[in-house]
Give the backbone structure.
Amino acid sequence: MRHTRSLAVLFGAAAFIGAVSPATAQLSLGPLDNNGDGPIPPVYAQGLRQNVDRPLAPNDVEQGDKLPPKGPPLWQVIPRAQITEEITDNVRDAQTGRQADLITTFTPGVYIAADAPRLTANLDYSPSFQKYAVAGDQDNISNNLFGTAIATLVPDTLGFETRGAIFQSAHTGTFGGVPTSQLTNNQRTDTYTAEASPVLRHSFDTIGDGELRYIVGETWFGGQTGATTNSTPTAFNGFGTTQPISNALHNELRATLDTGGVGKYVSNRVTLDGQRNDVDGGIGSNKESLATDEVTLHLRNNFALVGSGGWQTLEFAQVPSQNYNGPTWYAGMIYEPNADSQISLNYGLRDGAKSFQGDMRYTITPLITAYASYAEVTTTPQQAILQNLNGAVLGPNGSVLNASTGLPESLNNNLSLQNDVERLRTFQGSLVYALEPNRFALTGTHQETNSLTGLVPNDSISGGIFTWDRKLSPLNDLTLNVGYSAEDSGHTNTFSTSLAFRHAFSQTLFGEVDYSFVDVSSVAGGTNFLRNSLIFTLRKVF
């Protein structure tokens, strides 16, 4: 139940950080593009891109994910406002009795970024107000937010990191690829997630670099939070049938000692970690302790063997059958076939089960890049959201991107939101081809959940999305998206496609016309509907 790479989040502390806080990374601050999109922060994929035989060099800047030298302090605030008119032929996503409607959406927003000697931070916030001309019961207000802050309170000694997000998702997880703005109120779940992490660092001259990090994170929910209807009723330990999603609190204390190079070919890292996860009134509360020692053997400047061994304990408050007290280990390799590529793969015993884990970024040609990742963990839906938060970065207009691939990221794994303890397996592969004026991206995803409580049926979702972006002229762009997903437990298939044309009226005023089509079908008596939408958007950046 690992909770790795925690760059955290509680925005109540952000103001204090901004007043006192060297950042460990730099934002890509700059002008808007011709679609009115704000600057995209760089991809912080150091673990994937760092050379296996040397530390990250401050001046080693490549592909936007290395750490450039710090410049003068810079703040940037970009307000914006957007109005959208959507004409749809099936406002309630009904199989029969389709009803047309006109939906007006007003979305103000602001992008805030800081790049100062003691603070690197960015935040995008955009509340959305939807008004339905006919289906007034669907009127809603939603919030979208993503932000990070990395601060240095005492150079080389004390830091503070925060990270947080607000987003909406389909409650049953069955509508992969459908914009959340088109979900009906009985399908939309609001998720709020935040972490904060003070960090204490010290360099021991003859031993190595030490770090002590305390992490507190919380995930809570609004909107549709009831038990999912596609779950099979099962009695379990007096908890009844299915479990609605509940708020959860995460506490973690982690100490690491990185000895750096031990001689010419060996480096070593020792980790001591303790976690506690409390789920309000539901299944999923657990405790974990972990002690490991990871050794890296650098056989060549682009190839290394990695091995780790230690001891792990897992204790589940309501699921004692899944408790574990025993060894943990893994072994594998890291390979850099060229300067822009890295492949890592290992196999081991984690959380009481053996599994593979790997990541790949491979530059096939200067124009074609392939990405792939596979992971298998024991977790809860609340912990998975926090883990995904830590692997994400901010994109244009509040969009969330995967830190390793730069492609859109889903923070809730596209599976149903319901209290459970589960074995989660995730594979994602992407192929990106970029040659102006075109950019093509093909991404495939497969996720499996095996319930360890028996409360929720085992589930899987597989799908893919193809995106084609074409710059028609300096002022006009075209984007085509085609997506498909298949969810197993509800036997639900979702096909979606959209075509968007964008035009820049000026440097601060932008227009867009979209057509979208959604086809959701189920062979098990579940959801079935077709939906066509024509959407007109006007966006002003101030």
User: Anything to note?
Assistant: Helices lie at 14-20, 46-49, 381-390. The longest helix spans residues 381-390. The chain has one domain: 11-81+99-273+361-541. Residues 3-36, 38-70, 230-241 have pLDDT under 50 and may be disordered.
